[in-house]
Amino acid sequence: MQVVTRFAPSPTGFLHIGGARTALFNWLFARHHGGRFQLRIEDTDRERSKPEAVEAIFDGLRWLGLDWDGEVLFQFSRADRHAEVARQLLAAGKAYYCYWTPEELTAMREAARAEGRSGYFDPKWRDADPATVPQDVPPVIRLKSPRDGETVVQDLIQGEVRTANAQMDDMVLLRADGTPTYMLAVVVDDHDMGVTHVIRGDDHLTNTFRQLQLYQALDWTPPAFAHQSLIHGPDGKKMSKRHGAVGAEVYRDMGFLPEAMRNYLLRLGWSHGDDEIFSTEQAIEWFNLENVGRAAARFDMEKLTVLNGHYIRHTEDHRLVDLLAPRLAAQIGGPLDDTARARLLRGMPSLKERAKTLVELAESALFYVQPRPLMMTDKATKILDAAGLNVLKHLSESLADCPWTRDDLEAEARQFAEKNDLKLGKAAQPLRAALTGTNVSPPIFEVMEILGREEVLARLEDARGAT
Ligand code: GLU
Question: Which of the residues 50, 237, 241, 379 is marked catalytic?
Answer without folding.
Answer: 241
